[in-house]
Design a protein that fits this description.
By secondary structure, this protein is mostly helical. It has helices spanning about 1-30, 40-60, 65-90, 100-125, 155-175, 180-190, 190-195, 200-225, 235-245, 250-270, 275, 280-295, and strands at about 140, 150-155. It has one domain.
Length: about 300
């Protein structure tokens, strides 16, 4: 029982990180109705900015307090992500209002390659380290309940808590604020939203800024765990099954989908991996997502779209 709970908790903590990355996809889709293939590049760029500025700031300013340097680096990286959001809206999205979804999709692919190229040019292509002070030592809990206790990783626990707080704040933002309701209206119909006075350009800037902050937090956490390297952009691919499972239009779906995928990967690897030779954790999520595409394409919480002709 203790080993099962240990595996379950590990899956839940990994699932929260998947949910955090998946939120970036959901945010953009809810505001523009297009799948944002640039989300992985945004996570990478944000992590690169955070890592490099945390190295440069002590050299430039003489700050010896690493925590303060990391905080300043985080704020600078946040400003950079805001600036990127403004430029994307100004130079790309503004000229594609009311265009077909395929056009917007191809635009995000172009944005992804551009961001990756600029990131490598400005910050370099080496592997960098992010140290935000999260403890990496494992710890035993519930030792009085189970013999030997349950082993959890402190870094995973802190990362999951950070992701959970951000997810909760975004859920409140979408459900309880006027801007959140405007975002949902824009996603439903661009022209109708404009006709009732919702400024489409401003809404897109806001949602890309929010997605940039999500990418920054995700990049910071994943960079702390894996190191900042260009393979970090592929982390977004791990969130694709989460989005498919939970639904492209649902913030709660991204949360539940991430938890299901995280737990499913861990449990399947532990309890089924030896039957198939291992490696089930790599493809489990994609097989599950494929099954949902065949049975319920809109996901668990997505809206079923009916076109009337």
């Amino acid at each position: 029982m203790a080993f099962f709970l240990e595996t379950l908790l590990g899956g839940l903590m990994a699932g929260m990180l998947y949910s955090l990355v998946a939120l970036g996809f959901v945010l953009i889709f809810k505001a523009s109705g297009v799948f944002n293939f640039a989300q992985g590049a945004m996570v990478l760029f944000a992590a690169l900015a955070m890592a490099r500025f945390s190295q440069w700031i002590p050299q430039w300013t003489g700050i010896s307090n690493l925590i303060l340097a990391d905080l300043v680096a985080f704020l600078i990286a946040g400003v950079i992500m805001f600036g990127m959001a403004w430029l994307i809206e100004r130079l790309v999205l503004r000229h594609l209002v009311n265009q077909e979804g395929t056009t917007l999709l191809m635009a995000t692919i172009g944005i992804a390659y551009f961001i990756e190229g600029v990131g490598q040019t400005v910050f370099g292509g080496s592997i960098y380290k992010i140290d935000i002070g999260m403890p990496k030592d494992p710890v035993f809990i519930l030792e009085s309940v189970f013999s030997g206790g349950i082993l959890i990783n402190k870094e995973d626990l802190y990362a999951a808590l950070i992701a959970a707080v951000l997810v909760a704040l975004l859920s409140v933002f979408f459900q309880k604020t006027a801007t959140g309701r405007a975002l949902r209206a824009v996603a439903d119909d661009h022209q109708a939203a404009q006709s009732i006075g919702i400024p489409l350009n401003r809404i897109w800037v806001i949602v890309w800024c929010v997605a940039g902050v999500v990418a920054l937090v995700a990049g910071m956490i994943w960079g702390s765990k894996m190191g900042v390297q260009f393979s970090l952009a592929t982390v977004a691919l791990r969130a694709l099954p989460v989005v498919i499972l939970g639904g492209l239009t649902s913030v709660p779906g991204a949360i539940i989908g991430g938890l299901i995928i995280g737990v499913g990967e861990k449990l399947s690897e532990v309890y089924l991996g030896h039957y198939v030779g291992g490696g089930i954790e790599i493809w489990f999520a994609y097989v599950l997502a494929l099954g949902f595409l065949l049975i319920r394409p809109q996901g668990l919480f997505g809206e079923k779209i009916i076109d009337r002709v």
